[in-house]
Amino acid sequence: MTDVFGHEQVVYCADRQSGLRAIIALHNTALGPGLGGTRFYPYESEDAALADVLNLSKGMAYKNALAGLDLGGGKAVIIGDPATDKSEALLRAFGRFVESLGGRYITACDVGTYSEDMDIIARESHYVTGRTLAHGGAGDSSILTSYGVFQGMRASAETVYGTPSLHGRRVGVEGVGKVGHRLVSLLIEDGADVVVC
């Protein structure tokens, strides 16, 4: 069994009417509310979902602290296939669980969720970021994340090779989700020889 006792709070969420099965984990809120995305994924088991959300929320605690943010680490997983199980009713039910935490957890996009989903969740909760431009948000965070990674790679290339261009350089990208897909496009535009792992 997965050890949950290194975390401040672990919340199991179930809504029979919508079919929602989710877990929200707060690793540490010493610096502020736990910020982290909601992953919508077809886990093999509830134990696999729990292990993932615990690891991800702990990672977010460190990530937010290292970034100097007054935010703790939190994460959520919705168990299911986003292509077939996602619905407005399910996302709104999830939003009610987020709201019930009273601001201890702030959700955002992650694997299987998008800015449009955050707009729906925000109909039930005040504690949502990553909303669409039309609803006052900054839009899809993967755009800025991939651009930030790309610029970091260019800065590293300049330090190592004396030029920021990645033209002709072989670059490996592991994982081509929302961020990786955009990163690959930026690298190809810059002339890199991209290998997807």
Structural notes for this entry:
- The chain is an alpha/beta fold.
- It folds into two domains: 9-135, Leucine Dehydrogenase, chain A, domain 1 (Rossmann fold), CATH 3.40.50; 141-196, no CATH class.
- It has six helices and eight strands; from the N terminus they run ββββαβααβααβαβ.
- It has helices at 46-66, 82-85, 88-100, 115-121, 141-161, 178-189, and strands at 9-15, 20-28, 34-35, 38-41, 72-79, 105-106, 170-173, 193-196.
- Strands 1, 2, 3, 4, 5 and 6 form a six-stranded mixed beta sheet that branches.
- α5 crosses α6.
- The protein is globular and about 55 Å long.
- The two termini are 31 Å apart.
CATH architecture of the largest domain: 3-Layer(aba) Sandwich
Global outline: globular
Helical stretch tally: 6
Q: How much β-strand is present in the residues?
A: 15-25%
Largest sheet: 6 strands, mixed
Q: Regions with pLDDT < 50 over 5+ consecutive residues?
A: none
Instruction: Kindly give the count of domains.
Output: 2
Secondary structure class reads alpha/beta
Helix content: 25-40%
Number of strands: 8
Distance between the termini: 31 Å
Task: Name the CATH class of the largest domain.
Answer: Alpha Beta
Question: Can you tell me the CATH topology of the largest domain?
Answer: Rossmann fold
Mean pLDDT across all amino acids:
96
- Overall radius of gyration: 18 Å
Q: What would you give as the CATH superfamily of the largest domain?
A: Leucine Dehydrogenase, chain A, domain 1
- In sequence order, what are the helices and strands, one letter per element? EEEEHEHHEHHEHE
